[in-house]
Design the sequence.
């Protein structure tokens, strides 16, 4: 039986962050696109690292502490709630983390390039 095909982490991150990423268009500035993906990837990685397989709950705890800051924009708090729910419902079994990443634009729009990190037991 062939091994299950796993899609690229960049495709998974775009799907995970669809509600935010879907608002991006070719006319967005690179800074806006980068910031949007930074939010999505930070939330993704915090939840991945908090899983028992990774055993690093401090990343999620740190994120949650930052979200309690009264200076935190309400849009970011709302994005976290949305993405946290989406992670739990649709992506809870995906234990890959995002390492180095970048965004770039070509004639067809913005693209995400990601390096996958996995806990040693999954490699």
Sequence:
């Amino acid at each position: 039986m062939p091994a299950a095909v796993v899609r690229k982490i960049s495709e998974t991150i775009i799907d995970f962050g669809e509600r935010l990423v879907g608002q991006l268009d070719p006319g967005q500035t690179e800074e806006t696109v980068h910031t949007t993906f930074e939010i999505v990837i930070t939330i993704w990685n915090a939840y991945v690292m908090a899983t028992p397989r990774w055993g690093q709950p401090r990343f999620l705890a740190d994120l949650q502490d930052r979200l309690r800051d009264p200076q935190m924009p309400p849009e970011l708090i709302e994005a976290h709630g949305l993405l946290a729910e989406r992670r739990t419902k649709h992506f809870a079994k995906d234990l890959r983390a995002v390492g180095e990443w970048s965004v770039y634009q070509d004639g067809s729009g913005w693209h995400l390039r990601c390096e996958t990190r996995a806990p040693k037991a999954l490699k």
